Each structure stands twice: as structure tokens, then as C-alpha cells.
């Protein structure tokens, strides 16, 4: 009878142990990232730089995910593979954090807490120039902060299973796989400009190397 009781307890606890294991290992993988060097860039706050920062944000689709006032947005219905995806208030993120943390999130897919992102498409912005990153940050620092109450994001068991099993890589890993820009801007300035725009705009849908 005691032996049967032990089996019943184990059978009852097994699902919980599996869930705890999935959560723990996925969390380990999200935290097992190598932080890039601190982004050291002299910011400009002149009007031209700020306007250019807004232009880069609009042409890279940031207003589509973070809202037309960059106030943040919830993607629960649109992204069924995660329990609750939340694009944060981008203006608040820039005002709270320094440019190094912001650049780490934008280009490397690593949040202020040192954990890798799973939904933010940082690989689309990995090859943004230092100047464009600085202009974006300058614009966000100058922009009006629109307060909005947002729920806490939640990956959920399905997303954590994909992370734990390696079925889907997180953004810090994907950002490392983006090819470098190859066109020499001194010899082929227009072609290089086209490559730059495509490799910082189109690879979210068309693949890291734009080959589909």
C-alpha cells in the first residue's frame, strides 16, 4: 500500500517537475549570454539628429510594434506562440536606461536585466550604424513620454519549451548570425547604401541574409 502511495505521489508530481525543469532550463539559456562591450558614443541633441532618429525609427517599423507614440503595445492575440508578448514603452526605456543598455537591446537582443529577448527582432537592427543608433536614442530622449499601463510580459510554457529544447533560438543568438555588410562604400556608395537599408529593414521577414 505504501509503495502504491509513493507511485501515486510521483505520478502527481511528475508534471510539476517537468514544468519546473522546462522553466529552469529555458531561464538558464536566456541568461547564458555574453554581454557586448559598452557602447561608447558621443550623442548629438541637435534638431537634425533628432529628426533623423525619428526617420530611422519609422523606416525600421518601430512605431508599428511599439505604438504610434511609442507608448508600448500588447501582442497577445497576434502572437499565439507566447502567452503575453509586450512591446515596452520605448521612450520610457530610453529615458530610464543609458545608451549602452539601449544599444545592447536594439542590436544584440539583450535586455536591461541581462537576459536575452525572444520576441524583439534585434537581428533586424544588428547592422545599424553607430550614428543611426545614436540618433534613435537622441530622438527617444527628446520625445514626449506618454504614460501607458502595460501588463507584464509572459513567455508561457510553449515558448519556454521551444527555448529549452533549442527548437527556436533567442534573439541574442540570432543577432550573432546576421552577415556583415560586404559592399565597399568608397567604391560603390549607392550599392552600399542599398545593402545597408535592406540589411537593417528587410531581414526580419526575408531571412538574416535576405535569401528567404
Supply database-style keywords.
Cytochrome Bc1 Complex, Chain D, domain 2, globular
What is the CATH architecture descriptor of the largest domain?
A: Orthogonal Bundle
The overall pLDDT average reads 90
CATH fold name of the largest domain: Cytochrome Bc1 Complex, Chain D, domain 2
Order of helices and strands: HHHEEHHHHHHH
Helix content: 40-55%
* Strand order in space, largest sheet: 1-2
Largest sheet: 2 strands, antiparallel
Radius of gyration, whole Å: 20 Å
- How many strand elements? 2
- Inertia-based shape: globular
For the record, the CATH class of the largest domain is: Mainly Alpha
Q: Which spans of ≥5 residues are poorly predicted at pLDDT below 50? A: none
First and last CA, distance: 60 Å
Describe this entry's structure for a reader:
- 51% of the residues lie in helices and 2% in strands.
- It has 212 residues and is mainly alpha-helical.
- A two-stranded antiparallel sheet has the order 1-2.
- Helix 2 crosses helix 6.
- It is globular, with a radius of gyration of 20 Å.
- The model has no long low-confidence stretch (mean pLDDT 90).
Amino acid at each position: 500500500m505504501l509503495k502504491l502511495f509513493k507511485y501515486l505521489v510521483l505520478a502527481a508530481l511528475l508534471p510539476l517537475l517537468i514544468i519546473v525543469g522546462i522553466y529552469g532550463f529555458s531561464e538558464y539559456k536566456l541568461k547564458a549570454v555574453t554581454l557586448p562591450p559598452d557602447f561608447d558614443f558621443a550623442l548629438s541633441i541637435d534638431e537634425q539628429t533628432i529628426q533623423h532618429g525619428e526617420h530611422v525609427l519609422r523606416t525600421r517599423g518601430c512605431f508599428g510594434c511599439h505604438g504610434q507614440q511609442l507608448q508600448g503595445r500588447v501582442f497577445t492575440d497576434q502572437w499565439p506562440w507566447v502567452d503575453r508578448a509586450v512591446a515596452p514603452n520605448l521612450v520610457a526605456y530610453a529615458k530610464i536606461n543609458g545608451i549602452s543598455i539601449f544599444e545592447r537591446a536594439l542590436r544584440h537582443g539583450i535586455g536591461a536585466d541581462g537576459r536575452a529577448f525572444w520576441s524583439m527582432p534585434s537581428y533586424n537592427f544588428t547592422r545599424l550604424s553607430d550614428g543611426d543608433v545614436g540618433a534613435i536614442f537622441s530622438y527617444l530622449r527628446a520625445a514626449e513620454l506618454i504614460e501607458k499601463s502595460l501588463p507584464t510580459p509572459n513567455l508561457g510554457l510553449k515558448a519556454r519549451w521551444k527555448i529549452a529544447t533549442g527548437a527556436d533560438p533567442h534573439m541574442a543568438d540570432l543577432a550573432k548570425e546576421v552577415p556583415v555588410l560586404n559592399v565597399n562604400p568608397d567604391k560603390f556608395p549607392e550599392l552600399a547604401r542599398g545593402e545597408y537599408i535592406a540589411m537593417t529593414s528587410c531581414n526580419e521577414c526575408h531571412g538574416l541574409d535576405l535569401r528567404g
